[in-house]
Each structure stands twice: as structure tokens, then as C-alpha cells.
Write a structure and sequence with these properties.
single chain
Length: 521
């Protein structure tokens, strides 16, 4: 019958069996395999046997060689001198000038010109501690490691022989023919040739600079992934985000989350949710809440589109001089305090400071709305200098609001022509040159300055002078035909030139409005 005493004995026996270590076997003794001379000298060391010439020991699965040694049989340890060599299996060799080995803990301490090598790498240092029971080697006095094309150095390090993982600390440096890697903490695997970043790390190459605080780099296929404050610097462009994937062979960088591409030369930042940079074509693109910010002296211009693409190319006459273009595609919106815009596609040339808008382009400047089949803005010194409206050019603005007791919201000043050139001073429209099929409707005081009237004029070419966004005067250049009508004499349909549309609801009023309007379209 299984009584309480039997149960107590069973649990006691089970606890001993499961613990294992409580009654583990005693450490095996160091075995002397060979020595040319074996002597005992109480005057030198009463507890040691002195061994000289072709000395060899065996302990567990390790073989140790040296020129001379002291063997402490009772303590199960030894001291070895000159031409020390330890082999463990057929994969690992450890050499040095002096060895302290404890057979009980299986801990080897090797000093002076220490070399640890396996089939994958070679490690050089002045002192190495090697735990043979765990197959773990460590150093604290700097080391130099060669692994194929890679050379690594650090002040502190640990090598796990079974997993072929190496951990480096303090002043870590990895040098390859194509790059140089500097960091504080690094893990490197000698099988898959992959470096894992565990702290602030810089990768320098001829083409770029990479920084991260977490990630990995495969030194064979040249692919990598960077996280935590990571960025990729190529020339004057910096690509950063929550995480960066980079393929050095193809020169492609992919960025995920909080993407930012900064062009320090042109003072431009492109941000979004996802982005790519292609070194071979010198191009970058961003999508997902994409936004370009160009910093001027007094303000900033913001540009949004579904996709923003920046492309650079070398100048044919000057290899150091680069031309750059920025393309925006779909639901494009532009905001600057003194002008705003909307279109479906846009090209911004940094070199000549021009912005070309295509597919239903609309531009707002002060009270004026400007449209055409294509619109080109010429900027200079952070301001618009000229604007070119090509084909179906149209400029419109609301009539003078001070006369709203007479005029209602359907009254608009309008200028129409085949082509127009607008001239700006201090970001204000001051003159408009109309070329071909010119037509105008504008509201003004009559000659007695008592009542408002509407002036309709047709002329091939015109020059229109503007003051504070209002038409000041019109000069009709060729075959003019103009008439001033009383305010209520013309029917509503006659108060609209062909092609007139009013897009006030599309006009962004601030930076945030760029995204709101795009989402609603």
C-alpha cells in the first residue's frame, strides 16, 4: 500500500532526480597525453608536476599542446607556456603564449598573441577567456576579427561558437571594401554574414551615409533594414523614416512610416507615409499624405499630391552641378500665404525656379483666380515674378464688395484671352498682357463716380494694370471695341465670358486644407 512515508520518499527521490545538478558526476580529470620530461620539484611548487617538451593534455573533447606546463592534479588545473594550442573537435583552434585552464569549470584563459579560429573567421587579441562547457569566448582588451571580406574590431566582445554569433561592444568597427560600419553595439553571425545593430550605428560608403539605432545588414547580398531614428544620406538628400530597407547592389532605398526626404541645397522637404530612393536614376518618390515643403526667407510653400517624385540629373557641362525636377501627380494642391493653386499634375524645376501646372490648373493670387489649359509660374527670391497662362487663359475676381448694396454675388470681373502674361511685384499682380482674342468684363464707377457700371471690351491684345488685386485701367492695343453699360442693363448671361467658372471652394486656406480637399475630391 502506498502510505505517506512511501509518498515522502517518492517526492524526495523525484526532486533529486529532476534537479540533476545536486548529484551530478564529479568533473573529469585532466589527462596527460605526452611530455618529454616530467619532474617534481618541491622547491618550485609542491603541488605541481613540471612538464617540458611536446606537452599534450586531453580534457573532455579538447586537446591542449604547449612547450611546457605545470599540472596541478589535486586542483585539476594547469598552467601552460609557449606555443599553446587548444583544439576542440575539427572546427575550432585557440592559440597563444600562455594558458590557465581549470578542469572543474572548463574555463580557459589564454594570453599574448591570442588567435581563435574556426572555419569561418579568425580572431586576434591579447587575452581571451573561453568557456569550453558553453563554447563561449570573450575578450575585454580589444580584438581584431577577419571573416572573409569583413574585418571587425572592438574593445569588448563575446563569441558563441555553437551559433557562430559574435557580440561586439565599444568602438565597434566593421570594414569592407565597399563600406565602413561604426557603432557602439553589434551582433555578427559568421554563417549568414549578417550584422545586427543594437545601438547607434553609422555606415559610410562612397555613395551614401546610413545611420540607425536598430536593424541588420547582410554583407553578402548587400541588403539591409534600419530602424529607430534611421536615415539614408545621399549627396544633398537625406531619406529618413520609421524604418528603411536598403539594397546596396541596386541602390534602392525604401522607407516606411513618417517618411522625410530633405534636400538641403534647395531647402525642400518631402514627407509622406511611404517613399523610395533610387540612386542609379537619382530619383525619389513619396506617397500617402505626401507633402513638399520649400522653405523661403519669410515663409514656406506647401505642395500636396497623391504622389510626389523628385528627379535629379547631372549637368552636361559641369558634373558637379545638378538639375532637379519635382513632379506631383493627382489631386495636386499648393499653398503659400500669398498664392494658392490646384491641378491634377505639376512639374517644379528647381534649376530655373518654374512651376508648371497641367490638367485643370487653377491659381489664386489675392482676389484673383487664374486658369488656363496650362499655367507656368516663374519665381525669384522666394516670390512670384511672372505667370504665363497658355490657351483659354482666364482671370476673374469678385466685383467690388463695397458696392454690394448694388451688386450681388453673381458679379465678377473677367479677363479672357488666348495667352496671358502676368507680372508681379512683392507677390502682388500689377500688370497683365493679353495676346490674342482678348475680352474683358469689369465693374467700375462711371465718369461721375456716383454709380457702378459694367465695361465690356473686345480687343486682340490688351494691357491691364492692376492695383491691390483690382483693375485700375485697361489699354486696348489692336482694333478695340468697348462699351460701358449701366449696372442693370445687361442680362445675367451677358455678364459671363465664355469659359467662366468660379472655383472658390477648391481654394486651400491653409496647409491642413491641402489634405482635406484632396480627400473630398
Amino acid at each position: 500500500m502506498f502510505d505517506s512515508r512511501s509518498a515522502l520518499f517518492f517526492f524526495f527521490f523525484a526532486s533529486i532526480f529532476l534537479s540533476g545538478k545536486s548529484f551530478s558526476q564529479a568533473p573529469s580529470k585532466i589527462e596527460l597525453l605526452n611530455a618529454d620530461v616530467s619532474e617534481f620539484d618541491q622547491n618550485i611548487n609542491s603541488a605541481a608536476t613540471r612538464l617540458i617538451g611536446h606537452v599534450a593534455f586531453k580534457h573532455e573533447n579538447a586537446i591542449m599542446h604547449c612547450d611546457s606546463a605545470y599540472l596541478y592534479r589535486e586542483e585539476n588545473r594547469l598552467e601552460a607556456f609557449q606555443n599553446v594550442r587548444i583544439t576542440q573537435g575539427d572546427t575550432l583552434t585557440l592559440t597563444g603564449k600562455r594558458l590557465l585552464y581549470d578542469g572543474n569549470s572548463r574555463m580557459a584563459q589564454v594570453f599574448d598573441n591570442v588567435v581563435l579560429s574556426d572555419r569561418k573567421m579568425t580572431l586576434n587579441t591579447n587575452r581571451l577567456d573561453y568557456d569550453m562547457s558553453l563554447d563561449v569566448a570573450s575578450y575585454s582588451d580589444s580584438a581584431h576579427i577577419v571573416d572573409g571580406e569583413n574585418t571587425l574590431t572592438s574593445k569588448l566582445g563575446t563569441y558563441f561558437s555553437n551559433s557562430h554569433d559574435m557580440y561586439f561592444r565599444k568602438d565597434v568597427l566593421l570594414i569592407n571594401a565597399r563600406y565602413r560600419m561604426e557603432g557602439d553595439t553589434l551582433r555578427y553571425n559568421t554563417i549568414n554574414k549578417t550584422a545586427y545593430f543594437l545601438g547607434p550605428t553609422y555606415l559610410h560608403s562612397q555613395s551614401n551615409l546610413i545611420y540607425c539605432e536598430s536593424g541588420w545588414y547582410n554583407t553578402v547580398n548587400q541588403t539591409s533594414s534600419f530602424h529607430k531614428n534611421s536615415f539614408l544620406q545621399t549627396g544633398n538628400q537625406r531619406l529618413s523614416g520609421d524604418s528603411v530597407f536598403y539594397d546596396r547592389n541596386s541602390g534602392t532605398g525604401k522607407v516606411f512610416g513618417n517618411v522625410s526626404i530633405e534636400d538641403t541645397t534647395n531647402k525642400i522637404i518631402i514627407s509622406g507615409d511611404y517613399g523610395e530612393h533610387h540612386e542609379l536614376s537619382d530619383s525619389s518618390w513619396v506617397t500617402g499624405h505626401a507633402l513638399m515643403s520649400q522653405i523661403f526667407t519669410n515663409d514656406t510653400m506647401f505642395l500636396h499630391g497623391d504622389t510626389l517624385l523628385a528627379v535629379g540629373q547631372k549637368n552636361e557641362t559641369d558634373s558637379a552641378q545638378k538639375k532637379s525636377n519635382m513632379f506631383a501627380f493627382h489631386h495636386v494642391k499648393l499653398y503659400k500665404p500669398d498664392f494658392q493653386g490646384s491641378c491634377d499634375s505639376l512639374v517644379y524645376n528647381y534649376q530655373d525656379s518654374t512651376i508648371r501646372m497641367f490638367s485643370n490648373p487653377i491659381l489664386w493670387s489675392g482676389l484673383n483666380q487664374l486658369t488656363a489649359d496650362s499655367v507656368t509660374l516663374q519665381t525669384a527670391n522666394s516670390a512670384i515674378s511672372q505667370i504665363y497662362l497658355v490657351n483659354n487663359a482666364f482671370i476673374s475676381s469678385k466685383a467690388d464688395s463695397s458696392a454690394m448694396d448694388i451688386l450681388d454675388s453673381i458679379r465678377f470681373n473677367q479677363i479672357r484671352g488666348k495667352k496671358m502674361t502676368g507680372f508681379f511685384e512683392n507677390n502682388e499682380l500689377t500688370r497683365i498682357n493679353v495676346e490674342g482674342n482678348g475680352q474683358t468684363i469689369y465693374y467700375a464707377k462711371n465718369k461721375h463716380q456716383k454709380n457702378f457700371a459694367v465695361n465690356r471690351a473686345d480687343c486682340s491684345d490688351m494691357i491691364i494694370f492692376v492695383n491691390q488685386s483690382k483693375v485700375k485701367s485697361i489699354s486696348l492695343q489692336n482694333d478695340p471695341d468697348g462699351t460701358m453699360y449701366p449696372i442693370h442693363e445687361l442680362a445675367t448671361k451677358e455678364l459671363r465670358l465664355k469659359g467662366f467658372s468660379w472655383y472658390e471652394t477648391k481654394r486651400p486656406i491653409n496647409k491642413e486644407d491641402l489634405f482635406r480637399q484632396s480627400e473630398n475630391e
